[in-house]
Design goal:
Shape: elongated
Low-confidence stretches: 246-255
Mean pLDDT: 91
Strand content: 15-25%
Number of domains: 2
Order of helices and strands: HHHEEHEHEEEEEHHHHHHEEEH
């Protein structure tokens, strides 16, 4: 079995992977340069390579497999995790990659891979039936996306994603919320998931739990939407008028 056939079993590979078949680094680099010159292998970024599928003319690695190969601790999160689960309303030309090790944003084939600092190591698993993908579970994805919607994805897209969820494990939600331990996050998660409580099969006790953690500070649900907002006394939140109409009617938040 030649080297290319062996490498084809890897969605992405490094020079160390190639060394397993060549025996030493010098031979590995010689083989790699030969394969790249013949366009049988392409370089994605420093020390990340993928075999080219001769049928499609594209590399075999998906955007998600590339993302998870960037660092040893990299995993798919936020809106990109919703995309992977098939819940996203829009497919972005950005992949959000959480990692304990920082890396510089980079672009490959018109897709930008963006670093997000990893704030916890729970709620991450290896995807089944697909090699080389680590991703946040649904509950962690929801909490992270509500926490960071102003930086990642936007509020309207967040609501579109939440509408498609049919079940959430509330014990996991509590666990991730408690790790972050941010009063404003309990407020936003509690308020938003209360709206989808029946669809997501959440108990009233979970909503009460979120409510017990919010403190007495009044906050804006959407910090940019300070115009036509109303005060929700139950959650101590300033909420944009017609909030949940934006997904029903395909409109924008009115400010």
């Amino acid at each position: 079995m030649d080297v290319l056939t062996k490498l084809a079993k890897y969605p992405v590979f490094t020079i160390d992977d190639l060394m397993k078949f060549t025996g030493n680094k010098k031979t590995a680099y010689t083989q790699l340069n030969r394969l790249i010159k013949r366009d049988w292998v392409r370089k994605v970024r420093k020390n990340i390579y993928s075999v080219v599928n001769p049928t499609t003319g594209q590399i075999v690695a998906t955007r998600y497999q590339i993302a998870c190969a960037i660092t040893d601790t990299a995993y798919i999160s936020h809106h990109s995790a919703f995309e992977y689960y098939g819940l996203a309303n829009q497919i972005f030309y950005e992949v959000y990659v959480s990692s304990e090790t920082k890396f510089n944003h980079f672009e490959y084939e018109h897709v930008t891979y963006k670093y997000v600092a990893s704030r916890m190591d729970e709620g991450i698993f290896e995807a089944k039936n697909t090699t080389g993908i680590r991703i946040t579970d649904m509950e962690r994805t929801v909490v992270d996306s509500i926490k960071d919607f102003n930086k990642i994805g936007g509020f309207e897209e967040l609501l579109n994603c939440l509408e498609g969820i049919q079940y959430l494990d509330e014990n996991k939600l509590k666990r991730y919320l408690d790790i972050y331990n941010i009063q404003g996050l309990y407020q936003r998660v509690g308020y938003l998931l209360d709206h989808y409580r029946k669809e997501m099969q959440l108990s009233k006790e979970f909503i009460k739990y979120c409510k017990s953690k919010i403190g007495k500070s009044r906050r804006y649900l959407v910090s940019e939407a300070k115009g036509n907002s109303f005060y929700n006394r139950e959650w101590e939140l300033m909420v944009p008028e017609g909030l949940f109409e934006i997904t029903d009617q395909g409109g924008d938040i009115r400010v």
